[in-house]
Amino acid sequence: MLATLHTASATEPARPEGIPYGLSPEEVLLQRQRFGKNVLAPATRHRFWAIVRGIATEPMFMLLVVTAGIYLLIGSYSEAYVLLAATALVAGISLYQEARSDRALLALQQLAQPLARVRRAGQDVALPAADLVVNDILLVAEGEQVGADGVLLEAHDLEADESFLTGESLSVSKAADGEQQLFAGSSVVGGTGVVRVTAVGSHTRLGHIGGLISQVKTPPTPLQQQVSSFVRRMAMVGGGAFVVVWAYNWWESGSLAHGLLHGLTIAMAVLPEEIPVALSSFMALGAWRLMQQRLLTKQPQTVETLGSATVICVDKTGTLTQNRMALSQVYYPGQLGSIAFEENKEISAPLADLLATAMWASEPTPFDPMEQALHRAYAQTAVLDERPAYRMVHEYPLGEKPPMMTHVVAHHDGRLIVACKGAPEGIIARCRLPETEKAQALATLMQLATAGLRVLGVARCTTIPEVYPASQADFAWEFKGLVAFTDPPKPTAAAVLGQLYEAGLQVKMITGDNALTAAAIAQQVGLRHKEQVLTGTEVMALDPTALEQRVSTVDLYARMFPEAKLRVIEALKANGQVVAMTGDGVNDGPALKAAHIGVAMGHRGTELARQAADLVLLDDDLAGMVTAISYGRRIYDNLKKAVQYIIAIHIPLILTVLVPSLLAWQYPVLLGPVHVIFLELIMGPTCSIIFENEPMEADTMQRPPRPVTTTFLQLQELGSSLVQGLVIAAGVLGLAFYAQRLGYSETLTRTVTFTTLVLANVLLTLVSRSRHHTLRRTLYYHNPLLPAMLALTLTLLVLCLTVPALQQLFQLQSLTWLQLLLCAAVAVVSTGWFEFYKALRSPQRGSLSNEAQPTTGTNYTATVNTR
Questions:
Q1: Residues pairing with 138 in the sheet
Q2: pTM of the full predicted structure?
């Protein structure tokens, strides 16, 4: 077959000699020294100090400093020094988390930089757009983003989208007249061009408005808004509790400092400062983890949306199929049917004419796999390769409905060839064929398409008008035949679709191919509900209400064009779906931008598609979507576990500080600032580091997507955390009350209270690893940070109970084994009841060995991500 025939000369015709040689390495260095890097704003050099300022203004940091200051004023120097040390430790942990998130985001930004193609020292090279310099020779083509301002040296039917400058939605035609320019940030929507760079960075037209762009802030996501609202409410509660406790203790003791210390203690206990830190860490590190899986997210907020995707719209070519076009069958008038074309086989004159016409209708330097296959076929069958003797003089880009494209090429002696190719039914309709030949061509088309082949119609105009018509459809076309390409499905396509269906997602195929070819591929990859097909023309003919009804039942869309794709996406969104859309071409740009999650391909995708998308599959593998969705769900679930853990452990902390004082117990001050900060130092890393590292639960990808309207913590989930916290508080306070009744000293009562609370925190961490599965299952979850953190907590507790200096600082004493067992028993009962609740609510049947194991996104797709 033709797929096995390729040579470098056939695939890559020589570039026109008129392109300048380009800059030498020495000239590049000189220009960069003169004009700087091609970036709109220099990298922030003081990010470290910005993080430090942010930490210094955090409420918890300020509370610790104020409390330490009060201790200094009243002469309690050891407590003051400990709190200052704790303040430094809290700041260090926050700084580490911020820096870790910052590094992850910086890595994402660097990877997301657009690429540019330039000619330097006679060689075409691809490099980051930031490396462009003045006088570089920039090569641009359809689907690419222009990296710098420059004057056009060559333009071949070049059209650019400059809407960011002009506000006009229509593209602008460009010509190489010595004056017209391309501007940084614009997108090439058609044709090719050669540009000499005249301005980079802040000196570009885009750079002049860069200050306005830098002022635009990304709006908060619904999750961020909900979390911020919750933290604000808790801060208000903390402020109220601070005033009440401060006033009460001041009135009770007559000491302003005493009242302030108790008020600040309750404020520390109430304030959930771990939650916003956890949210930013989870999103930034989630995006970084996706990057490790070769999945690039443009914004960390995308991670949140991934977990709630309900519909994924996939294109066919290169996503479900291999995009390795091989010319396998051809048809031309006079043939009774299609024929297979084999290498080194002598061909007839009509077949040679068909292949030559198809080649002339392709780009001189092809980048499309089908056009590359046509160039190879021509090179390996032509008696004389005439490509060097011709140059393109006019081009009609892909247009019309059904789509077609036309090239006019001229020989150096003045002869012209006008050739077109496009949708076969459109080409056949535009040629004046006898009815019998037309019927035979259509029957052959149906035969080829039903076999899943991608078919193009080919035609030539032999009567060339003196003035080119405005529309390519107005030429007098002579039908030359059909060329058909095999593009088999990827070996993993069916498995990937199966996993998406298993995760509760709808899958819709949106392709530019005809309905028969689309249906054949849909059958091979296991697309569901493929019986009904909507074409782009039919989509545009439906009113919005009717379209919203149809898109809910139709999963196969053929002969789609940009406007039709966009309408389908908008109709799905109007139905309340969270839509992911994959695409790689210029015509996919609007739909990618409109979808909740635009997904572009990293290798074969156009730069325009990559810039419009939210997620880039760097390996062009749809299995990456399964990984991305699983990571999105995992991160969302783990964040919810972390927040529920924080709510549950804060309640006993608050009540243990508040209740003894307000109820005038014998020992009204069981916990002071040093005890609260000890627990805060444990809870912070547990929330934002331990839970972030938790693996995905085994049944995560078997659950349906969460509705987009769902609040982060529903009433039932919030209620379960509140009940957990109240039960732990009842256990801790009950033991404290019991200790007082037994005549324990204040130090011993504080010790059993503090010990029970710390042990309850350790057990609550284990219980909170799943809201559905019991410890019998979650103990097998792999998280090496968890045992390390729990061991550290228990070690610190032992030191506080046994080291005299720490005993004095925390006002604790050693416990007998019986007292330790009592503390442990209360902690087990007050946290372990939730395990019985989980077992009763969703009983686990069968042994663990027979159940799916917890996994990460990497392992989940291992069976389909092979190459």
A1: 118, 195
A2: 0.70
